[in-house]
């Protein structure tokens, strides 16, 4: 399966794997599943998100030192780590999602450190075996990524890189040369999190990326409602939504979370009549 956006704009949903919100609840039934109970909740949320129209799921691996993550995703990461969720569990989850939804885009989303601890080669093999389409290591700098890129190419996984408004032209060129699937344009510098307004820098960055690459460009950071998604659709191929979804999960019980997330995602492509013109 290749990473593809079926609709315009495409939607990429970020989930912290293993985060089932604050409610301890009773873990949902694990029958037939080989992943830890709390990942079963993430699986149900991911399936609901896909069925509601998310083209790609970013499966976030919880990490203790998540430098680019804002408070909402940091809290999700802490909850998931407290439940003992590790990289190998997230790969097992990816495998189940791939089996359940053969056409969904799946990206393993983590940092350099957990991958090096796992072993780069072993990670590449396991990620490919899980059926994921791509990998995004948020702190991997393209200029230092030759070994990583070679491994991704060996197992036919798309390496996805982050481009920022502050990225110099040479870096954008290198990102364009080595990326597959799509390029992730960060709408502004700083950390993840919901904002009122979409950053003005985003359109200019996408334009700069398009000079070097024909790949689809997804814009993320601060996108939380349908107006933002529509705006992104004017100049980019897809919108990434993270904190807004993770916050809804935080406020829901495990039973509610899949439905709450599905309704939110369905709403992201629905414009008010005045804006639909
Ligand atoms: O949360 P936001 O503002 O909607 O942004 C997406 C983002 O959460 C997700 O892609 C992401 C989670 N952690 C990251 C670290 C770096 C870059 C991106 C991310």
User: How many β-strands, per DSSP?
Assistant: 9
Global shape: globular
Element order: H for helix, E for strand: EHEHHEHHEHEEHEHEHEHH
Measured between the Cα atoms of the first and last residue, the distance is: 34 Å
Largest sheet: 9 strands, parallel
Protein name: Tryptophan synthase alpha chain
GO molecular function: tryptophan synthase activity
Enzyme class: lyase
Subunit structure: Tetramer of two alpha and two beta chains.
Task: Describe what this molecule looks like in 3D.
- The protein has eleven helices and nine strands.
- It has a domain at 10-157 and 229-270: TIM Barrel (Alpha-Beta Barrel).
- With 277 residues, the protein is of the alpha/beta class.
- It has helices spanning 37-51, 71-82, 87-100, 112-118, 120-130, 146-154, 169-178, 201-212, 226-235, 243-250, 257-268; strands at residues 10-16, 56-60, 105-110, 134-137, 158-160, 162-163, 183-186, 217-220, 238-241.
- It has a nine-stranded parallel sheet with strand order 5-4-3-2-1-9-8-7-6.
- The longest helix has 15 residues, at 37-51.
- Strand 4, helix 6 (146-154) and strand 5 (158-160) form a beta-alpha-beta unit.
- Helix 1 (37-51) packs parallel to helix 11 (257-268).
- The chain is 43% helix and 14% strand.
- The structure holds indole-3-glycerol phosphate.
- The site of indole-3-glycerol phosphate has 19 residues, from strand 2, strand 9 and helix 10.
List the helices and strands and how they pair.
Layout: E1 10-16, H1 37-51, E2 56-60, H2 71-82, H3 87-100, E3 105-110, H4 112-118, H5 120-130, E4 134-137, H6 146-154, E5 158-160, E6 162-163, H7 169-178, E7 183-186, H8 201-212, E8 217-220, H9 226-235, E9 238-241, H10 243-250, H11 257-268
Parallel strand pairs: 1-2, 1-9, 2-3, 3-4, 4-5, 6-7, 7-8, 8-9
Helix pairs in contact: 1-3, 1-11, 3-5, 10-11
């Amino acid at each position: 399966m290749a990473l593809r956006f079926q609709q315009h704009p495409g939607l990429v949903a970020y989930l912290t794997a293993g985060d089932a919100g604050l409610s301890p609840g009773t873990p949902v039934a694990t029958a037939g599943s080989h992943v830890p109970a709390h990942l079963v909740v993430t699986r149900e949320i991911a399936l609901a998100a896909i069925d509601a129209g998310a083209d790609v799921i970013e499966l976030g691996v919880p990490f203790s030192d998540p430098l680019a993550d804002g408070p909402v995703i940091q809290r999700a990461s802490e909850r998931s780590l407290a439940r003992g969720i590790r990289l190998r569990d997230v790969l097992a989850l990816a495998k189940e999602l791939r089996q359940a939804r053969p056409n969904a885009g799946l990206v393993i989303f983590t940092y350099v450190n957990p991958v090096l601890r796992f072993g780069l080669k072993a990670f590449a093999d396991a990620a490919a075996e899980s059926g994921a389409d791509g990998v995004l290591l948020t702190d991997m700098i393209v200029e230092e990524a030759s070994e990583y890129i070679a491994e991704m190419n060996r197992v036919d996984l798309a390496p996805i890189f982050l481009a920022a408004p502050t990225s110099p032209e040479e870096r954008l060129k290198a990102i364009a040369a080595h990326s597959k699937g799509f390029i992730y344009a960060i709408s502004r510098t700083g950390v993840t999190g919901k904002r009122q307004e979409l950053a003005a820098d985003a359109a200019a960055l996408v334009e700069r990326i398009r000079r070097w690459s024909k790949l689809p460009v997804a814009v993320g950071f601060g996108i939380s409602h349908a107006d933002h998604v529509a705006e992104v659709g004017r100049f980019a191929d897809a919108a990434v939504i993270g904190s807004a979804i993770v916050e809804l999960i935080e406020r829901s019980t495990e039973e509610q979370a899949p439905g709450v997330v599905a309704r939110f995602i369905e709403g992201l492509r629905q414009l008010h009549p005045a804006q639909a013109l």
